[in-house]
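Why run this: before we spend reagent on co-expression, it is cheaper to look at a predicted model of the complex and decide which construct boundaries make sense. The entries below are exactly what would go into the expression plan.
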Amino acid sequence: MNCLDFRRRLLADPLSNDEELLAHEETCPDCAPFARETRAQEIALRNLLQEITPPEGLAERIQLAARYEHRGESKRRWWYAAAASMLLTIGVSLFSVWHTIDERSDLTLAQSVLNHIDDESNHLREARPVSNGRLKFVFDRFDAELAGDLGQVNFAAECPMRQRTGVHLVMPGKMGPITVFFMPGEDTDGVLPIVSDRFQGEITPTAWGSIAVVGENGEQLDGMGEALADAVRWPANAGELASALFERRLSLGPRVAQQQDR
Ligand SMILES: [Zn+2]
Ligand SMILES: [Zn+2]
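The model came back. Tokens follow.
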């Protein structure tokens, strides 16, 4: 068996007990570490997939791992690079699991907004403003343009929503952070209230979809959805673009991400 065969078969079944595979691993100094890493990833992945809630602080750990990757001696760098790639792999596949769960339970739009805030609660703590360039980059993905001032924005990203992606923003409010989701293609009949133990807000319909604005209980949010709607110009096909961006994310299975990483 050559190294290529070995790696191909290992990737197909990382926990295989096949004697030929084990024999190659024992004698090949190049493939042995590859096999260990692949198995570790597989086990971490399986463990994580058994939990439905994402582990606390996953995003911070990825950032930390990525930061360490840039310093330290080479052995350490190798380890952190491997850790970062593993977390990335897990992140991608957790996304498809959440998607499946969302689909199966047919979540209401309001509930999916609250879940999203909860899943990414680390972003509520962002305290430094993002650059205008970052904002422009995020809206650009949907061919949307900033037509007015959004005010201070401490977090901006393109995020998966129910069946499409959208724009996730966090802004400072009086009672705490305010979360905003621009959701192209998510049409609603009239204004929908959002209520939980901690948060309150509403989903406002727009010409191209809807906008969710959610703050801590007691936050004054009146008119904010309309003001934000006026501040961004969306193309007529915003909903279709958002579907295409979502499909692209779904098609990135864990295996693909792993291979791209190598
Ligand atoms: Zn080999
Ligand atoms: Zn998000």
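The chain has ten helices and eight strands. The beta strands are 145-146, 155-160, 165-172, 177-184, 192-195, 199-205, 209-216, 232-233. Bring this page to Monday's planning discussion.
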